[in-house]
Amino acid sequence: MEVHVAEERPPEDQKKPRLKRHILLRVDSWIDSTMWNAGFQLAETWEEITIFFRRFRVRGWKKLFFEVLGEGMTLGTAGFVLLLALAQPAFEETKKDWRNHGDFAVTFLDRYGNLIGHRGIIHENSVPIDELPDHLIKAVLATEDRRFFEHFGIDFLGLARAMSENARAGTVVQGGSTLTQQLAKNLFLTNERSIERKIKEAFLALWLEANLTKKEILSLYLDRAYMGGGTFGAAAAAQFYFGKPLTEVNLAESAMLAGLFKAPAKYAPHVNLPAARARANEVLSNMVQGGIMTEGQVIAARRNPASVIDRDEAEAPDFFLDWAFDEVQRIAAKFKDHTLVVRTTIDTGLQKAAEEAVAANLREYGESYNVKQGALVMIENGGAVRAMVGGRDYGESQFNRASRALRQPGSSFKVYTYSLAMESGLTPDSPIVDAPISWGNWSPHNYGNSYAGRIDIKTALAKSINTIPVRLAKDKLGPGAIDKIMAEAKKFGVETPIRKDVTIPIGTSEVTVLDQATAYAVFPAGGLQSRRHGIGQITNYAGDILYDFERDEPAPERVLSETAAAYMNQMLTRVPYVGTARRAAVDGVLTGGKTGTTQAYRDAWFCGFTGNYTAAVWFGNDDYTSSNNMTGGSLPAMTFKALMDYAHQGIDLRPIPGVETPPPEAQKEIAKAKPAEEEGKLPPMVRPRSLSAETTRMIRGIARMLDEAKPIVLDPQKVASVD
């Protein structure tokens, strides 16, 4: 019997996996073949390119030339990108309304109502280039930039010529900056001497050339340059020196104006007429040498040099006026009237003394200490800024180092950490250990790398030991110590943003001199805000009072408890007698303060106070080069003492809060201080006194009585009966 066996067929669900595997194998095969073909085609193409470029292969010196050229292009491109990156921050300035200086016209008075200067549109009455005398334009271009209409902002030929002349003379006799570069510096940059600034200046010069016409550039240059005597712009200078409009100046006067651009303070004719005339003669020679005029055309100007109208030689406090003008614009922005009369807080006697103190010490010690700049801010206790020095010479550099320069304060910043420590319950006698300490990867060191072991806090502050404020911040102030120090500095009046870093207890975050003066004025105020201000009152020309500081500003808030303020004053008044600031002790007057010296001796500070005044003093170099071992206890302390000795002559001395009995060391020094005439010599500066302290009090009392007196009401019938 035949048996038929049925053929077994795979079920449908087994066919599907086989089909999927088959499709995947085909896809894989296609990918492999495609990639191989692509690689083969790419190799063939590269081979064809290589064969093509073999036609251009060079050997010998040609190969060397092209190798150098190629490397040069590579490095040049990288350098250009680097320069562009460095100049990028400067380009941010061009986004602002840099053409507009506002519509303010401000007349400034000192604290007693005497005229001290002007700022605003009253000094910017520009004259169109087409209306200016031809010889004025020629004089400026012959002296400042002969190829002005030929270059594109940077004059490489002029730069090469200047370098050649300077090398031949062995000193700097010619500058390589174009007029456009000088304008870029005046509009956007500072006088800081650095490679970065020169790079920014070059790029901004190119930007100005691309966005302005030559006439516009020249017009801005003539309008914005400082011309000495507190004047800005050629038009204001012509009125100030010659008493005439710029359109009416003659050749001799044009030459004198053109000579001011280089060094307005040195050649200002109202200060040094012979030097101004000699400089004008150089300008006339430049015009002849440049082929702009002939000797015959300038001979009359040589024989009849310009004369100037008589002016008071008293210099305006220009650094203070620049800062005060910014303050006025901030305060008066809401006022409809922008033509204003402003009574400031400046005391011209103290201002002159401050300028002389800084200048005299730089003249005598600047070279030996290798330091070229200084700045100072003086505040009368109560908040009024009485003096401000922003540099050694406003004519050379209008950059205000008192209000704008950011410098590391060094140990003068330690007071904020010590103040917090006093607030936390510690006292000047609290013990603490001076020993090596680390905070993360940072390990601060003391001056001389020595350690004192177990000491008290007042000794640590007087000796300016670095490890102690770091130990206080790390171990005593609790979590968030750095944030607390930053907040404390801000409460004291430091307006510059503080950089958050564990190193700030010893003063690594930059501040301004104005910041430190404002903050230190808290101590003689007994822990209250110093209320630092430079504007006392603002009126319009009709006499309406638009702003009054005492009326419109809030009362001071307490930023340091009375106990903590007393402890800080007790410690700070030891520093000038047993600590690092022995050259700062004012003769016969209890003095407190703190020195500051930064890494590599780049910055030196003394911030100090008496019961009457507070002052912060800084010395250093604009290019951040190191001084010759200058510390805060040297030049800054000496300058502070010179100013304070002058300021305290003939005034009533106020006590320092919390220091009822001066430290024994201070009592000895104060008792030893004798009048200068007993020592056989006159004081370096004598403060004139027109009224005694008693007479001043009496007059103030009379004024107060008149203010409080009721108005007199006359009887109309009695007035009518008088005939």
Automatic annotation (TrEMBL):
Protein name: PBP1A family penicillin-binding protein
Keywords: Carboxypeptidase, Cell shape, Cell wall biogenesis/degradation, Glycosyltransferase, Hydrolase, Membrane, Multifunctional enzyme, Peptidoglycan synthesis, Protease, Transferase, Transmembrane, Transmembrane helix
Location of the Penicillin-binding protein transpeptidase domain: 375-645
Catalytically driven reaction(s): Preferential cleavage: (Ac)2-L-Lys-D-Ala-|-D-Ala. Also transpeptidation of peptidyl-alanyl moieties that are N-acyl substituents of D-alanine; [GlcNAc-(1->4)-Mur2Ac(oyl-L-Ala-gamma-D-Glu-L-Lys-D-Ala-D-Ala)](n)-di-trans,octa-cis-undecaprenyl diphosphate + beta-D-GlcNAc-(1->4)-Mur2Ac(oyl-L-Ala-gamma-D-Glu-L-Lys-D-Ala-D-Ala)-di-trans,octa-cis-undecaprenyl diphosphate = [GlcNAc-(1->4)-Mur2Ac(oyl-L-Ala-gamma-D-Glu-L-Lys-D-Ala-D-Ala)](n+1)-di-trans,octa-cis-undecaprenyl diphosphate + di-trans,octa-cis-undecaprenyl diphosphate + H(+)
Recorded GO CC terms: outer membrane-bounded periplasmic space
Organism: Rhizobium terricola
GO biological process: cell wall organization; peptidoglycan biosynthetic process; proteolysis; regulation of cell shape
Pathway of action: Cell wall biogenesis; peptidoglycan biosynthesis
GO molecular function: penicillin binding; peptidoglycan glycosyltransferase activity; serine-type D-Ala-D-Ala carboxypeptidase activity
Record-annotated membrane-spanning stretches: 64-87
Family of this protein: In the N-terminal section; belongs to the glycosyltransferase 51 family.
